[in-house]
Amino acid sequence: VEQASDTVPPDTVIDQDPASGVRVDEGSSVTLTISTGSSTVQVPDVKDMTREQAEAELKKAGLTVAGTKSVDNAEIDKDKVAGTDPKATKSVAKGSGVTLLISSGMVDVPDVTGKSLTEAQAILNDLNLNVNVVPEPSDQPVGTVIRQEPAKGEKLQRGSGNVTLHVAAAQASPPPTEVPPTDTPSDGASP
């Protein structure tokens, strides 16, 4: 007979029937209860692994893959594990199913309008997005992002998505106006 035990290691006898010291007839049956180990295990951290690597780690921990779910994640490459449900380090019953959260590689574009070019580039670079800059005459302070393409909330592929920032440049000076010549002589002589 097998039985889970949080205190007795696997493959160790927990109990026997009849108990030790009891006389029995030769050839009688003795039932041994063998520990299968702890009835709970911790979900391992499989973040940033491939699906196959994660499945192997879960199996080693005595867990199964209940399925997968695609999630957007700015930090994890496409097709890598971004997390699990239940979360890593949570105690669960041995044999439980764990859902693998697989990164779609997509990120939501944030709104960087009104920010300085330096700040906007830092935000977009942190999301592993490429930045194109288009200077545009504006009455906004020079270097301020006045609009962006694509807009906030649209999804782009991490690592290859492009965001175009239209950045305030100095206003073009108006062309100089010509002063018409005067009819008065300049040498001071009168006719």
What descriptors fit this protein?
single chain, 191 residues, mainly beta, three-stranded mixed sheet, 2 helices, 13 strands
Write the layout of secondary structure elements.
Elements: E1 2-3, E2 13-17, E3 31-35, E4 40-42, H1 51-60, E5 64-71, E6 81-85, E7 91-93, E8 97-103, E9 106-108, H2 117-126, E10 130-137, E11 145-149, E12 155-157, E13 162-169
Parallel strand pairs: 1-3, 5-8, 10-13
Antiparallel strand pairs: 2-3, 4-7, 6-8, 9-12, 11-13
Explain what the structure shows:
By secondary structure, the chain is mainly beta. 10% of the residues lie in helices and 34% in strands.
What's a concise summary of this model?
This protein has helices at 51-60, 117-126, and strands at 2-3, 13-17, 31-35, 40-42, 64-71, 81-85, 91-93, 97-103, 106-108, 130-137, 145-149, 155-157, 162-169.
Strand order of the largest sheet: 1-3-2
Largest sheet: 3 strands, mixed
Structural class: mainly beta
Distance between the termini: 133 Å
Weakly predicted, low-confidence segments: none
Helical run tally: 2
From the alpha-carbon coordinates, what is the Rg to the nearest angstrom? 36 Å
Task: Tell the overall outline.
Answer: rod-shaped
The total count of strands amounts to: 13
Helix content: 10-25%
Multimeric state:
single chain
What average pLDDT do the residues reach? 88
- Strand residue content: 25-35%
**Element string (H = helix, E = strand):** EEEEHEEEEEHEEEE
